[in-house]
Amino acid sequence: MKHIITALVENKPGVLARIVGLISGRGYNIETLNVGPTQDPAISKMTLVVPGDDHVLEQVTLQVGKLVDVISVTDVTGARHLDRELILVEIATDSVAQRAEVLDLATLFRAAVAGVTERSVSLQMVGSSDVVSDFMLLLKPYKILDLSRSGQIAVARGEG
What we know:
Layout: E1 2-10, H1 15-25, E2 32-37, E3 43-51, H2 54-65, E4 70-75, E5 81-92, H3 96-108, E6 112-116, E7 120-127, H4 129-139, E8 144-149, E9 153-156
Antiparallel strand pairs: 1-3, 1-4, 2-3, 5-7, 5-8, 5-9, 6-7
């Protein structure tokens, strides 16, 4: 099972390295990792996706929570939450028909055209990880020139 963990941390040099080192040093994998400042520039929010059973989740949250610069750690996997992922992809389009096919797929997935050249189309799409994976699967028959996938970001949702 994949666990989505969020952590509020002090925005200082070395905090990310300590957290990643702690997790990898215990032999656990980080599938995706995103870090960015919050509304308070002194605090950053990390979103980690860590595969493993409940024991792995418990160890990661306990160990990360003990670090000095960590303010809080939350497993949002089972809780009400909103998560999204961004994909940027550049696809070769060798013909007008192929360009039309790619643009039809973009419309189907609500992807936006980020750029167009004579021989390629660049798309951006935001969605759940499953939707991003489905989009990538349907793009496989085309020649993908470049692709970047952000990994998940998540926020817990309140009741009501």
